[in-house]
TrEMBL record:
InterPro entries to which the protein is assigned, alphabetical: Glutathione-S-Trfase_C-like, Glutathione-S-Trfase_C_sf, Glutathione_S-Trfase, Glutathione_S-Trfase_N, GST_Omega-like_C, GST_Omega/GSH, Thioredoxin-like_sf
Organism placement in taxonomy: Bacteria, Pseudomonadati, Pseudomonadota, Gammaproteobacteria, Pseudomonadales
Name of a matching Pfam family: GST_N_2
GST C-terminal domain residues: 159-304
Domain of life from the UniProt record: Bacteria
Gene3D superfamilies, sorted: 1.20.1050.10, Glutaredoxin (3.40.30.10)
Natural source organism: Metapseudomonas boanensis
Name of the featured protein: Glutathione S-transferase family protein
Length: 341
């Protein structure tokens, strides 16, 4: 685990010295692929949607990277955007392409380490070396290393090439989706990390409490709603999914988020099974990478690197969600009022 400073790699764990709290660094490359290369909401233009031009770097362990893999799958982008998977073991060199530990290798240039991809973009790059990373082969630049924005690009920018009209961020319910993301990101997606990487009791307790209050809230919401925003499955669901699918196997033990398991929540657990069973999604879930990465890489938390064998879990059981309004798999035609229970 480490970071680049002026293009040089430093092996350094997260700094929590100030108050024991973990703070995630903001992503530093924020350009957008758009249908014809016009600039997106941030960054510079010149990244038009094209088949074969972009390459995605992911870890199968990482919940942020997992979002992008799900969108690539559901939006029919697999033949347009190829993927390199890093090794699940992340130690002093950060993310590597070590094929003995599950990496596909760097399919573009055979690099050994992901930080080399960052310094190919900018020889003086400073910042953490994170996945996911979307690379433009034509310009030799990073398009983006921010998952929440990569999934938005995947949601819409390539539709004219693929004909895939699934919309996980429909205009009519964007306010609701944004509001959900705004509460779920700090409390749950990043909340499990804030609990797990806290180095004081107070910082841990604060994250723990917020996390379980939010899970209680979401469980109650999903008693009434098929999906978080109502009838339509949206990006808010997929963003939560990648955290909750890891929860019982990793965050509950390794990150000490152990008040309850997701399996103990009636509605959240049914919703989790339904999303897991969504066509194509199970193929994006890899517990060898997930468990191996967290338990063996975070030596400050688990010095032995021993990877637990449990828990026994299945996501194939009936999800028990069919009594709720059916999920729409096409661009919603309903009005906002109808869409919300
Ligand atoms: N804002 C980023 C966060 C990505 C992120 O933190 N990824 C983790 C893996 S789960 C990572 O690569 N961490 C390496 C590090 O921080 O050194 C996003 O959502 O894309």
């Amino acid at each position: 685990m480490g970071l680049l400073v002026d293009g040089k790699w430093h092996d350094k764990w997260y700094d929590t010295a100030r108050d024991g709290r973990f703070q995630r660094e903001s992503a530093r490359r924020r350009n957008w692929i758009t249908p014809h290369g016009e600039p997106g909401p941030s960054g510079i233009g010149g990244f038009p949607a094209e088949a074969g031009r972009y390459h995605l770097y992911v870890s199968l362990a990482c919940p942020w990277a997992h979002r992008t893999l799900i969108f690539r799958k559901l939006k029919g982008l697999e033949s347009l955007i190829d993927v390199s998977v890093v090794s699940w073991l992340m130690l002093e060199n950060g993310w590597t392409f070590d094929q003995d530990f599950g990496s596909t290798g760097d399919k573009l240039d055979g690099l050994g380490f992901l930080h080399q991809r960052y310094t190919l973009d900018s020889p003086e790059y400073s910042g953490r070396v994170t996945v996911p990373l979307l690379w433009d082969k034509q310009s030799g630049r990073i398009v983006s290393n921010e998952s929440s924005e990569i999934i938005r690009m995947f949601n819409g920018a390539f539709d004219h090439l693929t004909g895939n009209r699934l919309d996980f961020y429909p205009e009519s319910i964007r306010g609701e989706i944004d509001a959900l993301n705004e509460r779920i990101y700090p409390a749950v997606n990043n909340g499990v990390y804030r609990a797990g990487f806290a180095t004081t009791q107070a910082a841990y307790a604060e994250a723990f409490q917020t996390l379980f209050e939010e899970l209680d809230y979401l469980d109650a919401l999903l008693e009434r709603r098929r999906y978080l925003a109502g009838e339509h499955i949206t990006e808010a669901d997929w963003r939560l999914f990648t955290t909750l699918i890891r929860f019982d196997a990793v965050y509950h033990g390794h990150f000490k988020c152990n008040l309850k398991r997701i399996a103990d929540y009636r509605y959240l657990s049914g919703w989790l099974r339904e999303l897991y069973q969504w066509p194509g999604v199970a193929e994006t879930v890899d517990f060898v990478h997930i468990k191996g990465h967290y338990y063996a890489s975070h030596r400050t938390i688990n010095p032995t690197g021993v990877i637990p064998l449990g828990p026994a879990q299945t996501f194939e059981a009936p999800h028990d969600r069919d009594h709720l309004p059916p999920g729409l798999r096409v661009r919603p035609a309903l009005s906002q009022a109808q869409a919300w229970p």
